Each structure stands twice: as structure tokens, then as C-alpha cells.
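One such shown below:
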Amino acid sequence: MKRTLPAALAAEDRPPSRWGWLAVAVWLVYLAQPLSEIWQTQHGITRLLGLLNLAAFGVSYVGFFGILRWQEFRPSASPLWQRLGYLAVMLGLALLLTLTAGETALTCMVYIAATAVLSLSLRLGVLVVLLLLGGVELSMRVVPGWSDDSSYGFAIFLGGVAVLAMRRAIQRGSELDRARKDMAELAVQEERNRFARDLHDILGHSLTVITVKAELAGRLIQVNPEKAAAEVADVESLARAALGDVRAAVAGYRELSLAGELVSARTALQAAEIKADLPTTMDEVPEENRELFAWVIREGVTNVIRHSGAKRCTIKLSARQIEVRDDGKGPGGSTSGHGLMGLRERADQVGAAVQVGQSPEGGFRLAVKVGP
């Protein structure tokens, strides 16, 4: 059977985008409220100091997020005192801002709460959010001239919950990336060992026979030239056969294996925490259909992991048809991607039909049928 490197090896490590900080900086738009308050109520040097204070807070927020992103949002990546110290600096800037922006400076507490949830352990992050929430609610009621409508406290609560969910998503993504890297490294090692064994099996016997026949030809060249010539001809034939075997072994890496893709699909789905309902045998699938069906599995499972949000993926095999379906969010606009276009081209080459649409479970269904 032809073999291939698992699909996980096709993925490349992508460095973080250099423009990722924009996704953080865009939320600074909510500082427009204290900015407007400073501009309208302050004048001269007081206005300038207030604006510089606000700018320093924005820079500290974006800067801290940049550090966290560089550390892959791992709370253990730096000492606790450093992270608490940075949060204290942000809190100090926010409190100082109340002198020029009044109660609108409490908007900064939402940024501090979000940063605390991402930078600290889960328990400590929640504690910081509760302390900020309590402090804001108390100050809104005891500081003269400040309203007590609880809007800032509600914003802190919503921001903490949203960032907590984002933190969990980041952790899940990191865990999945690490699992894929580990699988890829293990697959590379396994393929190296397997290929070494294959080469040993292919060449070991042939080279041994070639060596024996070459030695025999050397001894016969003076005694029986005709017999020596026959042995040399055998050596040439064996060498050509061994070269052909090596080429065939190497060529096996250029095509997909149905068995290999089923194994890779199960591993990838498990890493993505998607229940895999896969066939346990492929004996009924003819050899001429197996490579196409392997491409269907690769494309279908890739789409399930990337786009579906599914909890279960099912693959069904028969002699002339393969079906990949899930219980995710359905096809949506994902029925004409580059992967499906390439799959249709492969199917057209062998007279097969590609079907895409909604699965019985409500998710996405990809099926390929060979023949009428």
C-alpha cells in the first residue's frame, strides 16, 4: 500500500501577525468619553496634563497587552510581582485621571479588569475584577457629584466575562496548536524510522546479492569469462531493480493513503475535542478509489475542525462513495472554497461527483460518489 506523511505535517508554524496589536488598540475608542470630558472642562496646563495622563494610560494598556501576547498569554511566563506591578501602574494612572476627567475616568477600570483576567491566574483575576467592581460601585455613591447608575460596574462585569471567555478560547487554541506540533514531530520521527526500515528491506537483500555476485564475477573473470559476464549482467539487473524499488518507495510520499488519512483524521479530531465516528475497515473500497477518498477525508476533516464548531464528525465509506458530515453550524457560505474546488477537479478526473450541503444532523455534509 502506498504511504504518505500524515496531514498534520502539511501545516506550517505561523508567527504572530505583526499587526495583532491593532485588535487591542481599537478598543481605546471607549476612552473618547474621558477625552471629551478633559477637553470640555479643563483648560491650559491642566488640560495638557490630563491629556498626557490619558495617553500614558492608553500606551500602558496596549504595551501590557503586547507583552502578554508575546508571552502567549501564559500567566506563568513572568513573575507575579511584575504583572501586579504593571496593573498597579495602570490603576495609579486611572486614579490620577479622575482629577481631570472626573467619573468618566472610571472607564479605565474596564481595561484594567480585562488585563487582569488575561495576565493573572483565573482565581486571582476574578478577585481583581470583583475588587474593581466593588470599588467603582462604592465610589459612584460616596464621591460628591458622581452618579450612581451602576453603568461602570456593569461594564466591568461584562468586560471581565467577555475576556474570560476569550482567555479560554486562547488557551484551547494554544493547547490544540501544541498537540498538533507534538503529533507532527512524532509523525516525522515515525516516518523516518519507517522509511529507514523500508530502505533496509528494499536494499539490504539486493546489495548483499550484488556483492556476492560481484565477488564471484571477479574470481571467474580469468577462469570462465563467459560465466563472469553472466554474473556481471545479473549484477546490473539487480542494481536496476533496486533503483526502481527505491524510486517507488519515494514516490509513495507524493500520494495520499486512505488508511493514513483515516488515522490522521482520528488524531486531529480528538485533538480538537470532536467525537470521531470513523470506519474501522476499508476493505470494500477498490484500490483505484482510495486516493480520491483520502483527499475527501483530508478536505472534509480540515473544514470540520476549522469552520464547523461541531461536536461530532462522521465518515462513511462504501465501494463507490465516501461521506463526511458533522453536527456543526452548517454549510453557510463555505461551499466554494479553494479546497473544494481542488477536490472537484480531482473528482472530475475520475468521473466522480462531489456533493455539498446540509447534513441530517444540521451541520455540513461532503460526499463524493464514483460512477453513476
